[in-house]
């Protein structure tokens, strides 16, 4: 399915000049779009991922931006290293994620564990590492890339739905604790976004639902969405930038949903 093009936005105001941002899963998809958008707003962005090649591509795209994008190779399953990496950041975007589509009885327990580690425990450790510095400076922005699956369940996504529901809860607790210190915490929860994570799951979904791949997009992925298009990564990045900007000081403990009306049902 093709989406109407997103009109390129005018150059954003440099509202994050002097701020440091850490974006996880920044080598691809939504994370790459967030890194570029925050650098366009003037931030020094530390782009963290386990994929060194993807990070090299990203930094090459960031040359002309007012901020900077610096690559940091790290696998977030190293939780102690993740917590250390978050020290000193003003903005934290918890974005890294993985997906496996399988019925519960066939879902490998090791994969369930890894997904919860990367998508829930690592965000906790990154927040834990970031908060002392944010509290000391009296300002911080935490944005957790959740999903419509943080608010709704789908069959065959036990680990993903569990992790994202947990992330929504973690984000709210962070908002309550951070508020007296000038720290906000919110989720951005998209429906299906045009990224490699979605492209990879088309075949899995086709097998799980016994459908040809070409029917999966409309009949499965976009079945719950009133707006029948994929979200573009830049749309998610714009929501993240808003939450880090000067007009979102009172926005905390909530979720910005970009789901084409899915959760309106
Ligand atoms: P993607 O596959 O394009 O990018 C995910 C990135 O995370 C990759 O660069 C990968 O290397 C990195 N990553 C994975 N495991 C890691 C680890 N252990 N350590 C370090 N980096 C690791 O995916 P995406 O679609 O851009 O997804 C980004 C986030 O958005 C995820 O949390 C995902 O759940 C969420 N999301 C995606 C969609 C969608 O439709 N694409 C919808 C809703 C929410």
Largest sheet: 7 strands, parallel
Strands of the biggest beta sheet: in what spatial order? Answer: 3-2-1-4-5-6-7
The CATH fourth-level homologous superfamily of the largest domain: NAD(P)-binding Rossmann-like Domain
**What's the number of helices?**
8
Distinct bound molecules: nicotinamide-adenine-dinucleotide
Number of domains: 2
According to CATH, what is the class of the largest domain? Alpha Beta
Quote the distance from N terminus to C terminus: 22 Å
Family: Belongs to the short-chain dehydrogenases/reductases (SDR) family.
Pfam families: adh_short_C2
Protein name: 3-hydroxybutyrate dehydrogenase
Description:
With about 260 residues, the chain is α/β, with parallel strands linked by helices. The chain has two domains: about 20-195 and about 230-250, Rossmann fold (3-Layer(aba) Sandwich); about 195-230. The chain has helices spanning about 30-40, 50-60, 80-85, 110-135, 160-180, 195-210, 215-220, 235-245, and strands at about 20-25, 45-50, 70-75, 90-95, 140-145, 185-190, 255-260. It has a seven-stranded parallel beta sheet, sandwiched between helices. Helix 4 links the parallel strand 4 (about 90-95) and strand 5. Helix 3 (about 80-85) runs parallel beside helix 4, helix 4 (about 110-135) packs parallel to helix 5 (about 160-180) and helix 6 packs across helix 7. It starts with 19 loop residues before the first strand and ends in a 7-residue tail after the last strand. About 45% of the residues are buried. It comes from Streptomyces luteireticuli. This is 3-hydroxybutyrate dehydrogenase. Pfam families: adh_short_C2. InterPro entries: 3-OHbutyrate_DH, NAD(P)-bd_dom_sf, Sc_DH/Rdtase_CS, SDR, SDR_fam.
């Amino acid at each position: 399915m093709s989406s109407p093009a997103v009109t390129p936005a005018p150059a954003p105001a440099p509202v994050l000049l002097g701020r440091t941002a850490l974006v996880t899963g920044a080598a691809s998809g939504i994370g790459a779009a967030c890194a570029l958008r925050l650098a366009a707003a003037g931030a020094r962005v530390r782009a963290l991922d386990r994929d060194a090649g993807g990070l090299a591509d990203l930094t090459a795209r960031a040359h002309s931006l007012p901020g900077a994008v610096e690559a940091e190779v790290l696998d977030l399953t190293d939780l102690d290293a993740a917590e250390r990496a978050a020290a000193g950041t003003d903005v934290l975007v918890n974005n890294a994620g993985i997906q496996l589509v399988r019925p519960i009885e066939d879902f490998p327990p090791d994969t369930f564990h890894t997904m919860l580690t990367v998508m829930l425990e690592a965000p906790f450790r990154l927040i834990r590492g970031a908060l002392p510095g944010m509290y000391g400076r009296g300002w911080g922005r935490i944005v957790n890339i959740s999903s419509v699956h943080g608010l709704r369940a789908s069959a065959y996504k036990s680990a993903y739905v569990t992790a994202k529901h947990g992330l929504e809860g973690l984000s709210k607790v962070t908002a309550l604790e951070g508020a007296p210190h000038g720290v906000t915490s919110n989720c951005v929860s998209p429906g299906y976004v045009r990224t490699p994570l979605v492209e990879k799951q088309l075949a899995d979904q086709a097998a799980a639902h016994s459908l040809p791949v070409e029917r999966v997009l409309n009949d499965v992925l976009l079945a719950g969405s009133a707006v029948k298009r994929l979200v573009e990564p830049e749309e998610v990045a714009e929501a993240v930038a808003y939450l880090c900007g000067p007009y979102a000081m009172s926005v905390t403990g909530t979720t910005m949903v970009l789901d084409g009306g899915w959760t309106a049902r």
